[in-house]
Design goal:
The protein has 390 residues and is of the alpha/beta class. It is built from 17 helices and twelve strands. InterPro entries: NMT1/THI5, SsuA/THI5, TAT_signal.
Length: 390
């Protein structure tokens, strides 16, 4: 069900190679080499706070709040690090669990994998207020009724992503036992769909624009329009929340992300430029218009209905409970999960305690390059969902 092969050769640069992950047949991660004593020493303090991606790469626009905040100095003197991680979809929780990273960014499905396998993790900052996930189809082959996927094949970049798609389909009334999944590889699963393999593929907001840049022009059933499930979230070791110093650090760190989110909302083009400065190849591949399209898709997901939220990162416990109830029905977890036990809004007030007027002034004060200054953001917003199945 998940891709649980050891990824020793894929340990990201900057993460200590003294620890090696082994994965049992049940999917539980253990550490060898220096063993548990080495891991305890690593967890004693955040000498360098490491965030790990769920995608196997950082060269995407998804993490624009971090790069915007870093450029603007919103993290202050905090020693922060970003790592791409292996492309195995479950690595983002495994590495946090054993102390090789301090914060992961799993989908709810991968978070449920961690809970099911006894990883003592807790969601502290819910990035995806709306469901970012979508189902991509070749042009003219899409459907508004996902029950039409029964008997069909869905392509995934990692086998672990089945934990994302199963609850999405089940919530739409699909008999998931009648759906076949094929792991078509990262980053090639979209190309495989375009090439005639499978009937559909998992996608998400932001990626839709990046796929267009690669010549992959699909139509989509969009979760942001049709799903009530939550999306990716920031998780940490639950024990870290019991440590006063670590909790204080996390509040400051998440405040940097919240300020970066606010910055991007106020000036999405400037946020794209911050990412492009970090990754010139991404800038070359996407360009200003598709880059801005991608970030606007993600801002819609990350912001959600802010009038009903407690600020950036706030969990909607009803949405999360609905997700846990759904995955219990389909057997993705074997015991009930109470949302409040694994998700917390305790850090949200502190994370959102910043001067919004100053962030707006910072964002408005950015001098855009010629290519970005020429863009009509309102026009792009008006066409964000043109690729939805008609």
């Amino acid at each position: 069900m998940t891709n649980d092969k050891p990824t020793h050769s894929s340990v990201p640069a900057g993460i200590s190679r003294r620890y090696f992950l082994q994965v049992t047949a049940a999917g539980v991660v253990t550490a060898t080499a220096l063993g548990a004593s080495g891991l305890k020493a690593r967890a004693a303090a955040y000498e360098k706070f490491t965030w790990i991606s769920p995608r196997g790469t950082l060269e995407v626009l998804d993490d624009y709040p971090y790069w915007s905040a870093k450029k603007a100095g919103y993290f202050g003197d905090l020693n922060t690090d970003m790592q791409p991680g292996p492309s195995d979809g479950t690595a983002t929780v495994k590495f946090v669990d054993v102390g090789q990273a301090d914060m992961g960014f799993p989908s709810p499905g991968v978070f449920s994998f961690a809970i099911q396998n006894g990883m003592k993790l807790k969601s502290v900052f819910h990035m995806g207020a709306r469901d970012t996930f979508s189902i991509a189809f070749r042009k003219g082959q899409g459907t508004k009724n996902l029950k039409d996927l029964e008997g069909k094949t869905i392509l995934l970049g990692s086998a672990a992503w089945q934990a994302i798609v199963d609850p999405l389909l089940a919530a739409q009334g699909v008999d998931i036992k009648k759906v076949k999944y094929v792991e078509a590889g990262w980053p090639t699963w979209g190309t495989a769909l375009a090439g005639g393999q499978g009937d559909a593929a998992l996608s998400w907001e932001g990626l839709r624009a990046e796929w267009i840049a690669k010549g992959l022009d699909f139509e989509y059933w969009l979760g942001v329009q049709n799903s009530k499930l939550p999306a990716n979230t920031f998780v940490v070791r639950a024990a870290d929340l019991e440590d006063a110093d670590k909790k204080a650090f996390l509040e400051k760190y998440l405040r940097g992300w919240a300020m970066g989110l606010e910055f991007g909302y106020q000036n999405p083009r400037a946020a794209v430029e911050a990412v492009f400065e970090q990754f010139p190849t991404l800038a070359k591949n996407l360009g200003p218009e598709l880059g801005t399209t991608s970030i606007l898709q993600q801002i819609n997901v990350f912001r959600g209905d802010m009038d009903k939220r407690g600020g950036w990162g706030s969990h909607d416990m009803a949405s999360w409970q609905g997700f846990f109830d759904e995955i219990l029905k389909i057997g993705q977890i074997t015991a009930p999960v109470k949302a409040e036990d694994v998700c917390t809004n305790d850090l949200i007030k502190a994370a959102n305690d910043f001067d919004k007027a100053k962030v707006k002034a910072d964002a408005d004060g950015v001098k855009l390059s010629e290519g970005f200054a020429a863009l009509d953001v309102d026009k792009i917003k008006a066409h964000l969902f043109d690729s939805a199945v008609k």
